[in-house]
Amino acid sequence: MQDDETLKFYAENARAYAGRGRRPAKRLGAFLAALPPGARVLELGTGGGQDARAMLDAGLEVTPTDGSAELAREAEKLLGRPVRVMRFDELDEVDAYDGIWAAASLLHAPRRTLTGILTLVHRAMRPGATFVASFKGGQAEGRDGFGRYYNYFDGPTLLRHFEDAADWENLEISQELGSGYDGKATDWLWVTARRR
Fold this sequence. Notes:
Protein name: Class I SAM-dependent methyltransferase
Pfam families: Methyltransf_23
CATH architecture: 3-Layer(aba) Sandwich
Structural class: alpha/beta
Shape: globular
Organism: Paradevosia tibetensis
Strand order of the largest sheet: 3-2-1-4-5-9-8
Oligomer: single chain
GO molecular function, one term: methyltransferase activity
Number of helices: 6
InterPro entries: SAM-dependent_MTases_sf (IPR029063)
C-alpha cells in the first residue's frame, strides 16, 4: 500500500478489519496444492492474518507482510509471530520464494506502479514458483465509500501489466462475483501465474 488515505483507514480500523472473522480465501486451497511440501511463501498484505494462519497450519514457511503497521500488529495476535511491515515497492529479495500470495492487496497499488511491483514479485520468486493475486474489477482507478484507493482493472488491462512486468508461464485471469469489507457485490479478478 502506498496511499496515505488508504493507510489511514487501516490504521484507524485495524482491530475491526482484522477481527471480522473472515475465512481464508476460497482460492487458497488451489494455491497450496501447487506448492511443494514445506514451501517458502511470501504473503503480500496479510490483513488480519487468516490466510497466513491457514498456510502455517498446512506446514508452510510463511513470511506475512502488510503495509499497515496497525494491521500487522493485529495479525501478529492471530499468528503468534512477527509480521513484516513493508510497502510493495520495498520487496527486495531474489529467488527466495516457492509461492507468493497477494489476495486483495495489490489492488491498493497505484496503477502507475503496478508493473514495477510485479517485476519485483517475479524477481523474488524461485523458478517454477506460483503467484496468485486478486483485484477488484472495473475500468478506472478510484476510491470506495471508506476512502480506500483501488486500481480497478478489467481483465485485458490487468493482463498487459503482468505481460509488461515479466516473462510468466501459465498466466491466467479468471473472474468471479463476490464481496468485500463493505459487503457490496464485487467483480473479482484472480490472477495465477508461474515463474519460468
